[in-house]
Amino acid sequence: MNTEVIMLVEDNQDDATLTIDALQANHIRNKIFLAKNGVEALDYLFGQGVYEGRSPTQLPVLMLLDLKLPKVDGLEVLRRVRADEHARLIPIVILTSSNEDEDRLKAYSLGTNSYVRKPVDYDDFLRVAGQLGQYWLSVNEPPYKL
Questions:
Q1: What domains can be seen in the chain, in order of their start residue?
Q2: What is the pTM for the complete model shown?
Q3: Could you read off the pLDDT of 64-78 as tens digits, one per residue?
């Protein structure tokens, strides 16, 4: 089993399940950490709160980040990650249902690597999520090796 972690930040359980299923269907065997809100994602990344003691140097190889999250929204998570010296190079893909130009422009201005709208159709969702995993984990060359 691959020990590199994919962080999925998603509050909708159906979308989280679909994304995990799509990654597994595409033979992506990385451990997946699911954060259900922005606070949980930041706490995990920075080893604080309930994740105190977890080393913040153990970074995910990919973050799939929803925008519309409870507690701390996805744009704020993105801003905080990009502001952190150690975490700023994590590849982050915004995976959202938002079609707002303002959201897309803000996400890119804050440093997202990619912005993908969640397909509504089940089969399309599985295909897109699987392609994301394949690209970012198999094709893309990350700035650092974990």
A1: 5-139 (3.40.50.2300)
A2: 0.92
A3: 999 999 999 999 999
